[in-house]
Amino acid sequence: MTRVLRSLLTLTLLLPSLAAAQVGHFPDASPYRDIRGDRYFQVFGGQVLGNGGPLQLAPQDGPMVGARIDFRSNSTIGLSLGGWYMMTERFIVDADKPPATRVSGPIDHRIIGAEATIQFNLTGGKSWRGLAPYTGVGLGAAFGDKTPAADTSGYAFGTKLFFAPMVGTRVMVGSRAFLKLEARAVFWNIRYPPSYLEEPAQAPGTPEEPNAVNPTGRRGQYTPAPAFLVGLGFRF
Asked: For 40-50, how does the pLDDT look when each residue is reduced to its tens digit (9 = 90+)?
């Protein structure tokens, strides 16, 4: 009997804490709110902060604008399709000139991208105090300007596949809209022309001290283009 009474007393003491754990916050006091609607259309813009990579051929700084449609915005995993336009710059590297004078520019370097995005919403289908943080990655193709006549090296950005890891948050505005803050980096493989392997005609180097633009012999390398974006989305 003593054992039974002791068990009942223990259960009685535990009930309030168990009930609190089950109930949690009252609906009006909860910091979480459901994200309504699973489709949003958003526009965004921001700044690209490229450094051109080791040979200064990749995109430099410039503005970026775009739009996309978000699917399954009210679940843990979201999907989206969209496109963007970068208005960046790049330098011309003349493989025939000496190292001190071979770089000129910058010149305009415009790139169009088409992208599919997988987004992981860290608070699931809810916002926390109006915030819905996320991380994700974009996969797509980018199409750059044709090589200008002034660039005789043979370099061309061409068409490239890219991936773009990102992190950001949505700031929910009512039940039908949100603001977006995002940081991302677009990674693409910059391919070097064969002329960059050759010694410049005006100042050839030696095997010990080469003057070629690309003395390493690499055919290319992945170079990131970081960007900071602000967006506005509407439910439809």
From this structure: 999 999 999 99
Identity at 2, one-letter amino acid code? T
The helix or strand, by DSSP H or E, that contains position 91, with its residue range, turns out to be strand 77-93
* Cβ burial 214-232 (10 Å sphere, 16+ → b, else e): beeeeeeeebbbebebebe
- Token duo for residue 85: 């336009």
Three-state DSSP class for residue 86:
strand
CA 142 to chain centre: 13
List all residues 6 or more positions away from 201 whose beta carbon is below 8 Å from its beta carbon: 96
| b/e map 110-121, b = 16+ CB within 10 Å | ebebebebebeb
Q: What is the maximum alpha-carbon separation in the chain?
A: 104
Q: Is the pTM of this model over 0.90?
A: no
